[in-house]
Each structure stands twice: as structure tokens, then as C-alpha cells.
Design a protein that fits this description.
Blueprint lengths: L2 H17 L20 E2 L4 E2 L4 E4 L5 E6 L8 E4 L7 E9 L2 E10 L9 E8 L2 E9 L17 E7 L2 E10 L9 E11 L3 H23 L13
Antiparallel strand pairs: 1-6, 2-5, 3-4, 5-12, 6-11, 7-10, 7-12, 8-9, 8-11
Helix pairs in contact: 1-2
Length: 229
């Protein structure tokens, strides 16, 4: 086998390590390209536009525009007309890794009524709060009347287990002027299994060895026997 063929074979082995699945798929449709497939939700108060605008207290767009973090759609959850949160949920099982996503809260109410939005992970009795914003809270939490956040990214490392992802928004007091929670790019980056690491390490090791052999190969010297002195 030539050096070039050896390098190609070794890189293919490493690529197989990257492509090898770390168990079953862990989270589906995290960017809402398939609308609400794989999610539990009230579809009447959920939309997946390509662009979403914030509006001021007169219902007029104020120039704040949101576009998707990933793909061509973003998820928009509208608060209901009572004080119960409207939410989307998905339960998934992971062998461990990093969970990440993005959210934004758009207040469409006055400060006395304190609408709020959140993203959290639930595992048994444990709750991991990934994002929380409201209207009347203090610095870093409250956005004020008809305020908003930019896209906010978050991540957390999860141990192996089963989790429920929940993202919701609620009308704080009055049941009027519902606010919005925008979500996008939820994903679970799983930890590769030992066999996957073994493939990757073996592939890169073979590629390095093939390159070293190629560098050490003797350079042929051509002798012109017909040349006269």
C-alpha cells in the first residue's frame, strides 16, 4: 500500500470515528424546522416565522428584529390570556454531554403586570434554570415595560439520564397584553463513546505514521549512463 493510500485510509478511519453515533439521537427538531414535530405544545399559541419583530405599547414595530440562530425558522411562544404559562416540552435521554440553546424575552405589557419567560431542564425533582427574564425584576432579570432582550445563548453539561426541556412564557397578573418567548437552536452535543474515541485516535495515529514514512522515503537519483565526461 502506497503512502498516499495509507494516509487516505487512516483519515477515513478517523472520519468514521467522528461519524459514529454515540447511541440514539438525543434531541429532535431543536431549531423548529419541522414546526412542532417531536414537541408537546399548544399549537394555537406557537409559531415558527423566519423573522419576528418586537412592538411598542401602541402595537407598532419598534425596529427590534429577530432572525433565526440556526436554520430558516425560530420558535415563538405567546403567553396565554390567563396567568398559567404557555410552554413547549420535549423529553430526551442522553449518555452525557453539553446541552445548549438560545432564547429571547419580549415584553408586551406594563411593569405592574410582570409577564415572564423561561427555559429550564427538569430531571426528577431537580430543575436547571437556563434562562429567566421578566418585566419588573432587578438588574439582569427585568426588561421593563415593553422591553426586550437580545438573543441569549446558554449551555450546561449534563450527566447521563433523562431530561425534560421546557420553555414557557406567562402573563403575570392581568391576562392581557401577552408577552413572547423566542427560542432556537436547542441541541445536545453528546460525549463520544469509548469505541468512537478509539476509532478517531487510531485513525489520526495511522495518518501521522503514514506521513512520517512518506517524509523519510529515499529520493531516487537518476544516473545518465550515456553522459560522457
Amino acid at each position: 500500500m502506497g503512502a498516499r493510500t495509507s494516509i487516505i485510509a487512516a483519515l477515513a478511519l478517523a472520519a468514521a470515528g467522528f461519524a459514529a453515533p454515540a447511541g440514539a439521537a438525543e434531541l429532535f427538531n431543536g431549531s423548529f424546522e419541522d414546526i412542532l414535530n417531536d414537541w408537546a405544545a399548544d399549537a394555537s399559541l406557537f409559531q415558527t416565522p423566519g423573522v419576528f419583530e418586537h412592538k411598542d405599547e401602541n402595537g407598532v414595530p419598534d425596529g427590534k428584529v429577530y432572525t433565526p440562530i440556526h436554520g430558516s425558522m425560530l420558535g415563538v411562544i405567546q403567553a396565554g390570556f390567563d396567568t398559567s404559562p404557555m410552554f413547549i416540552r420535549q423529553t430526551f435521554t442522553t449518555k452525557g454531554g453539553t446541552f445548549s440553546g438560545s432564547a429571547a424575552f419580549l415584553a408586551e405589557d406594563f411593569i405592574d403586570y410582570n409577564d415572564y419567560g423561561y427555559v429550564r431542564l427538569i430531571s426528577g425533582v431537580d430543575v436547571i434554570e437556563l434562562f429567566y427574564r421578566d418585566i419588573a425584576g432587578g438588574p439582569g432579570v427585568g426588561v421593563g415595560a415593553f422591553g426586550y432582550t437580545d438573543w441569549t445563548s446558554f449551555s450546561t453539561v449534563l450527566a447521563a439520564g433523562t431530561y425534560t426541556l421546557e420553555a414557557g412564557v406567562a402573563n403575570g397578573v392581568d391576562g392581557e397584553n401577552p408577552s413572547f418567548l423566542l427560542v432556537d437552536d436547542f441541541r445536545m452535543n453528546a460525549v463520544p463513546e469509548p469505541t468512537t474515541w478509539a476509532l478517531m485516535i487510531a485513525g489520526f495515529g495511522l495518518a501521522g505514521a503514514a506521513l512520517r514514512r512518506r517524509k523519510l522515503s529515499p529520493v531516487p537519483i537518476r544516473v545518465d549512463r550515456d553522459r560522457r565526461r
